[in-house]
Automatic annotation (TrEMBL):
Protein's organism: Racocetra fulgida
Residues covered by the ABC transporter domain: 40-281
Key words of the record: ATP-binding, Membrane, Nucleotide-binding, Transmembrane, Transmembrane helix, Transport
Protein name: 4444_t:CDS:1
Compartments, record wording: Membrane
Membrane-topology descriptor: Multi-pass membrane protein
Keyword Glycosyltransferase recorded: no
Pfam families the record matches: ABC_tran (PF00005)
Annotated Gene Ontology cellular component terms: membrane
Entries under SMART domains matching the protein: AAA (SM00382)
Length: 281
């Protein structure tokens, strides 16, 4: 009987689950370098999790200019993370559209979409490997990797003799043991980044976005489970390093987005899109 339950589930997964859209649509590829600006237009977006389920997002229309920093706040269950997932088409919209740099994202393949925008989630996915896995396809030099790690305040270069040096000792703050431990670019990263603190995992995720030169970054409650000091460091890094990129941050704390350009306050529908000063008042 136990085995038959397993067979039943396999049949359900193979026959009844909705299949995602195509990875690549040959006749409708995203333009080279897309998105180059990070300009977003959301028009009458509505989403729900099932045919008979109520709408989670209802009639959202928002225009976001290139390079803007937008904070999204609201109580649990109001649809903040659903809105974030909509940019990656994890869930397809019931109606409406999202247009990024003049491209309706529903018209391109999922690989073209997801490989060109960046999400920094609350729990970043870190695979078994090394620090240099920031660049899994070896598209960048070691010097570029050192640079982004240094820019996110994750490392201090303690030995740098030549650009050709392949193994440069770095020091990384081990917040768990309150000490500095020297590591190298080929030092191991354990599964799920278990040998790094939560804050360090977020900084590694930010470094990945930097090495990719992302023009659109989605942060989904990325700092919800870390202390205020680390939150402040991460937000300062985002503001400095992504000042020419569009950043959408779903915030657990209002102070996380206190100096963003605009705040999107959500209930089950959009209630207000206003300057932060007006929101606080």
């Amino acid at each position: 009987e136990t085995y038959m339950n397993s067979v039943e589930r396999l049949i359900h997964y193979s026959d009844k689950l909705e299949v995602e859209a195509e990875n690549i649509i040959p006749d409708n590829r995203s333009p080279p370098g897309w998105p180059a600006r990070g300009e977003i237009h959301i028009k009458n977006l509505e989403m729900k999790y099932g045919t008979d389920s109520p709408l989670v997002l209802k009639g959202i229309s928002v225009d976001i200019m290139a390079g803007e920093k937008i904070g999204i706040v609201g109580r649990t269950g109001c649809g903040k993370s659903t809105l974030a997932m909509s940019f990656f088409r994890i869930i397809e919209p019931t109606s409406g559209s999202i247009i990024i740099d003049d491209v309706d994202i529903s018209t391109i393949g999922l690989r073209d979409l997801r490989s060109n925008i960046t999400i920094i989630p609350q729990d970043p996915v870190l695979f078994n490997g090394t620090i240099s896995n920031l660049d899994p396809f070896n598209e960048h030099s070691d010097l570029e990797l050192w640079d982004v790690l240094h820019r996110v305040h994750l490392t201090k270069i303690s030995s740098l003799t030549t650009k050709k040096q392949s193994k440069v000792i770095l020091s990384i703050s081990d917040q768990k043991n309150n000490k500095q431990e020297p590591i190298m670019l080929d030092s191991p990263v354990k599964e799920n980044g278990s040998n790094f603190s939560q804050g360090q995992q977020q900084l590694i995720a930010i470094a990945r976005a930097l090495i990719r030169h992302s023009k659109l970054i989605i942060m989904d409650e990325a700092t919800a489970s870390i202390d205020f000091k680390t939150d402040h460091l991460i937000q300062a890094t985002v503001r400095e390093e992504f000042k020419n990129s569009t950043v959408i941050t779903i915030a657990h704390r209002l102070r996380t987005v206190i100096d963003y350009d605009r705040i999107l306050v959500m209930e089950y529908v959009v209630e207000e899109l206003a300057q932060l000063l007006n929101t606080i008042e």
